[in-house]
């Protein structure tokens, strides 16, 4: 799982760069032809990692239930994300990876509810979930790179 976490950490640095580069208004803007915005994608990435690794392991997630409801699969932006919320999302970009790393080292991921993703991947363990998560984050990073061309 360590290699997957290193890849995730690298991707999260790129995502943090979007938070540095774009204004609150730009992060919240949904360009014509898109169904979401930069900040939704970043928060969605955080939520999905927590659901894949922690929820399906039967463990408590770091993110709030409210955040899960707002950014889980099938949701769309429902208003302006405030600077305070953006700061929380930025913090979670890295704290969620650090927590997964320490929890993996302590062997907390013993059980896992097997799951088949929409793209057909069968995930059988938390380690599989972290590996799949990198695919998921890469997909959303690609969407974000498309969105930024229209800001």
Summarize the structure.
The chain has 151 residues and is an all-alpha fold. Helix content is 62%, strand content 3%. It is globular, with a radius of gyration of 15 Å.
Could you name the ranges where pLDDT drops below 50 across 5 or more consecutive residues? Answer: none
Structure summary, number of beta strands: 2
CATH C-level category = Mainly Alpha
Q: Kindly name the structural category.
A: mainly alpha
Strand count, sense and closure of the main sheet? Answer: 2 strands, antiparallel
Q: Specify Rg, calculated over alpha carbons.
A: 15 Å
What distance separates the N and C termini? 36 Å
> Count of helical segments?
6
Q: How would you sum up this structure, described in words?
A:
With 151 residues, the chain is mainly α. It has a single domain, classed as Four Helix Bundle (Hemerythrin (Met), subunit A) (Up-down Bundle), CATH 1.20.120. 62% of the residues lie in helices and 3% in strands. The chain has a two-stranded antiparallel sheet with strand order 1-2. The radius of gyration is 15 Å and the shape is globular. The chain starts with a helix and ends with a helix. The model has no long low-confidence stretch (mean pLDDT 97).
List the SSEs and their pairings.
Elements (H helix, E strand, L loop, with lengths): L1 H20 L2 H5 L9 H16 L11 H7 L11 H23 L9 E2 L5 E2 L2 H23 L3
Antiparallel strand pairs: 1-2
